[in-house]
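Fold these two proteins, one after the other.
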Amino acid sequence: MISFGDDSDEKAAASAQVRTFLEMVVLGTTAQLVASLRDALYIGPLRTIPPRGFLYERAGRITSWADGLAAWDLLLADRASLVERTNLWLRRLGAGCQVVVQQLFDRTADAELLSDGHVGKAVRRLLLDTGAGSLVLPSEVGAGVSQIIPVVVAALEARAGLSLIEQPEIHVHPAVQVGLGDLFIDAATRDRGRRAVLVETHSEHLILRLLRRIRETTDNKLAEGSLAFTADKLSVLYVESSSEGVRIHRLHVDERGEFTDRWPKGFFDERFAEVYGT
């Protein structure tokens, strides 16, 4: 009789192989998740209003995305295409302003800025055209504008594989909140859907627009300029606190743009007008 090892050796070897396989799966998935989160773009719920004297020097810098200032940095970097696309979306949203990047130190300089040590440097500042015949600083307009511009720029920033945006609707008119739905559809479907957008929101208006676009896509009744959007591209999660801790409910949506699960606690009392397009 020829023996190639007892059963215990075979079981130990099999166990080691299974353990190695599971480690590869878990560690590989974890590494992929960490890499995705490392490259994610996060916008917090309260975006900082750029202070007076907020400038961009030729050396450049990108500050924090969490407080929204990185968006202003990118615009000030004089990326003409980004400024143009941002202004396009500001018009579509009805935000009431346009971004203007002004060069300061090619030939002329402002005395106040010179006193801050910016002599001899190419410096730009960002102004807003509100249509009132004059250019103003971001700190001189309503809070809604300072809140919405970082959200628009974040949605347009192509380098982010995952965009995390908290409460984009803060200080924003309901009509603009509705338009944010189209902005996020554009962000999620651009580049062949390689991007994901995760939005934490309390805005029924925003969600209603997403549902409406699903319905219009199904009925082939999209308005000119609107992007197709299907139910499989949307995941709605409702988070609530309970005595047992935090609960997360997945609310499924059908091809008609209707929730097939009951929405908790009476949300969507205003949905009639959006559902029937009135």
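Now the second one:
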Amino acid sequence: MNTVLRILAWLLAMTLVVLPVVAVLNGWVGTERWPLAKLRVTGDFKRVSPEQLRAVVLPYVRSGFFAVQLQQVQDAIERLPWVERAQVSKRWPDVLEVMVIEHQPFARWGADRMLSEQGRLFPVPGGLKDLKLPQLGGPDSKVTEVIALYKVSGALFASTGLDVSWLEMDARGSWSLGLSNGLQILVGRDDTRERLQRFARVLPQLLDPQHPVVRADLRYTNGFTVVRGPASVAFSVESRLSEAMFASASQRVTSCVQFGRQPFIAFQSVFPICSFGT
């Protein structure tokens, strides 16, 4: 009796395995018999439209409810520029369900990418004129460090009413940043946060609308230098590091700030500020 039961159980198991294969081969579960007729989309949509999703999904659902490859559908959706991740499932008898999470842009990264709030880099989609974002940059492996210093810098300069417009780390690990009033700051590689803290404490005393500080060099052990320009001087975020590295030789150094007891060199009147090393 036990042998008979085991044989029956084995036959039932084999039937359950073989039946779907036979059904597909015979067209029992083909598109005509069990088509996917509905697309149900959920998500907080700002940049991705249901129409876009429908166009992406359509080529994959023609195989019907049983034969549709959900992973292929998900991969296709996640290739859309603004999609961070997607989840695809099906519900009997004819519904394909798609859940989409969009990238939440945090900053621009380099020339052709963006940085999401989750710290992921993704290609720059179209239609970004309405987005006012800081410009960040650096080696891809240093994304976390760049974000951290951007947040620290923003907090340090918040009391002045100025925002950090751009911040970059170069290949040597040297930092530069710009504020929303056009002030460009060369920080260097060492003691980055300490240098910024010292400068942020002094900056309110240096602000003068008639003679604004346009550049500052913090790469000194015992102080920093600033360069003032005319009130009409303005810099956009697009003036990248090649300009932000302070290449102008026509500006005059009007302030040298000293910290500590060590003597601080009094620089002469006119010079290319980029001539001083780290």
